[in-house]
Input
Amino acid sequence: ALDEIAAQLTEIQEKYGPESVAVWSQTSAAPPSMGLLASMTKRFTAAIRATDPMNGVGLDNGAEFSNQTDLGGGYMMVDPAWMQDSDLILVWGANPIENQHRIANCMVEARSRGAKIYDIGLVHDATAGFSDWFIPVKPGSDAALALAVAKVIVDDEAYNRDFVVNKTVAPLLVETKTGKFHRSEDGYFYYAWDCAKNEPVQVAPSQYDLDLETTALNGCFTVDGVECKTAFQLLKERLEEYTPEYSEQITGVPAQDCIDLAHEIEKSKAIFYNIAYGLRYKNQGEIHRAVTLLSALTGSNGYPGAGCGYSMATTSWPVPYNTSEVDAPYGRDEKGMPIGPVFVKQREFFNDCKAGKYKAFLKMQGNPVHNNPNRARYEKDTFPNMELVVDFDIWMTDTSELADYVLPDCMPFERLDFINPACYGHVVLQEPAIEPVGDNKPATWYISELAKRLGLGDLFDKTDEQWIEKILDDSPSLINEDGSKITLEQLRRDKLVRPASLPKTLFNGSVMGITTPSGRVEFYAEAYAPLDEAIPKYRPSLAFPIAEDAKYPYQFFTGRQRFFMQSMFTDDPLMRELSGGEPLCRMNPVDAEREGLVVGDTIEVYNDNGSVQLKLVLDEAVPPGTVHVWFGWRRRAFEKGTYAELTVPCGGEEASDELSDLWWDHFLETGNQLGSWNSFITGTWDTLWDATCAVRKL
Ligand SMILES: Nc1nc2c(c(=O)[nH]1)N[C@H]1C(S)=C(S)[C@@H](COP(=O)(O)OP(=O)(O)OC[C@H]3O[C@@H](n4cnc5c(=O)[nH]c(N)nc54)[C@H](O)[C@@H]3O)O[C@H]1N2
Ligand SMILES: Nc1nc2c(c(=O)[nH]1)N[C@H]1C(S)=C(S)[C@@H](COP(=O)(O)OP(=O)(O)OC[C@H]3O[C@@H](n4cnc5c(=O)[nH]c(N)nc54)[C@H](O)[C@@H]3O)O[C@H]1N2
Ligand SMILES: [Mo]
Output
């Protein structure tokens, strides 16, 4: 099989160019998520100069957008162990109790020490049940709530002045005409206004010693003949509209609750904002930025108990592994981008697939036919135009069923890997529990064997042990208390090591920090001023609010469940049984009554994109107005259709807009600040739950 695949790849690349081969690698897919397999996939993509269409994928982009915009990509991760010193934990669009065990244990511990937990969410999930206060919002409306809370805090002057003056762009002067920060002639210095001297002062990037008493936060000033306002003044003007009453109309949260929430926040000494991936709506960029703004106003970063951890799984922060050389065999360009792979926006990729530009699709990680909305895109427009489709997996999945070759990878229990610690704060070795069964080989073996057959064997000349040793070697932060490097031998002995480099705060050195151009939290982002998006705002999402007379009156919500890990374990009989034995649809009894439906009815859920047939259960955990189908079941488990037929194509035209395009352009222009490939997922929004539907009894 490897000989045949290599021969076809060679022929295709010679005939149509190297970029006519696409490598699909969703790094969250194969356990341990960002382990060696993820790096080897990147290495292979670069080595054969293939196209990487994952960049504009439209997953998790709210977090990514806010991280890059407000924080410079620098510290999207904080250690959840910090929660031990929190007195308030705000869970915003996340379900850590069911989905993030490493966060859940910290929350349980923090609560036992007296921390309060408030959950702002949609369905009454286990985190809502665990919370002291569950605040339900209408889908995709959160930016209005966060901004209204921000308004109360600003009006009360209850923000953390120290943080706001010295760790955010609040005092920096913005030119009213251009929307850009006013700078010195050489472009290096920013400006603030000193009220005592009544004159402008220059502020260098990452200079944090402005006078707390005399630095102007509000006002309009003229510098070098140019009219300017402080970023804080512009924030105040933006917030004018966001009264608690206005927020109530959009979010459904009573105005008094919004005020109470703001006052609770004001009272708290150390707040941990736990915002994650429950915001799969077109306006998620603004939502994440609005919550980040709150965390900046309350100064919730940089001291014990206070953090804004809004991206719980995508990178190795707070302990960065350096996989830079492993990922990029031909090195990097001056902007830090790897040389070799061709990055394309996903919507362009699929348009070009339809037009026949791409000839081979190697799926190395993920199950896109199942997990990426709109199956028809693959079945009709993409795979029929490919001369070669190869899948690496451990099960027969919806994607494998459509592939020409399926290479059986080892399960995580059969292979060595190296767990990228994400928020674990630990370096963990994943060791095989059993020998590989049958023909199974580790995917890294397939990759190296394929590379050899393509004449690139010298780039893949190491064993898995040697690659792991290289990453350990290349990563300065993977050290022990005595300064010595963490070694493979040590990991084999101890299994799990907490590196001594783990940062305690954000401002104690260069390991983590704010890497925006100003070195401050940029709640005012000048790049987005042309779209009036320099400061986050509420804008309606794709499907919400739903018009009163809409043909499709319900939200179509396909959230994840505790028994499956996306589409993994979906073939495990025990997990299937726990999950209800078959795919089910959940509705609120109020809606079911209106529709004349009862428990056990077989129903069809449909919209213009497609339909799915399944059994109905009633559940008050699902709010009125939402129809919930569990994410994870394979196509063959449904009588007819599947949920993935109803959702809006990820990374497609509908999921993109001027803001996402500007983000993409801005990112290409400024380069990859983190130097890691992961952070290059940009250029569209995630609209997985931004869909409407109707239901009928069959
Ligand atoms: N058991 C299990 N664990 C998993 C996964 C799995 O499939 N199974 N998947 C993993 C992956 S890849 C990811 S990305 C993470 C995701 O994990 P999380 O980031 O925790 O996100 P979700 O569980 O998808 O969604 C959390 C909650 O978001 C809320 N929500 C929906 N819409 C809105 C809204 O408009 N506003 C607000 N405020 N809340 C809303 C819903 O109430 C939902 O319960 O989980 C990971 N962990
Ligand atoms: N409707 C809807 N769609 C969604 C979401 C949603 O909430 N609702 N969530 C989205 C999110 S957040 C994500 S992250 C994506 C996930 O999308 P994907 O990453 O594409 O989904 P997974 O199901 O995690 O795919 C993992 C694949 O890896 C295989 N696998 C497991 N172990 C191994 C291994 O050791 N080696 C190899 N080679 N393969 C292995 C599994 O069998 C599975 O087929 O889905 C997205 N799609
Ligand atoms: Mo995810």
Q: What stands out?
A: The mean pLDDT is 90. The first helix runs from residue 2 to 16.
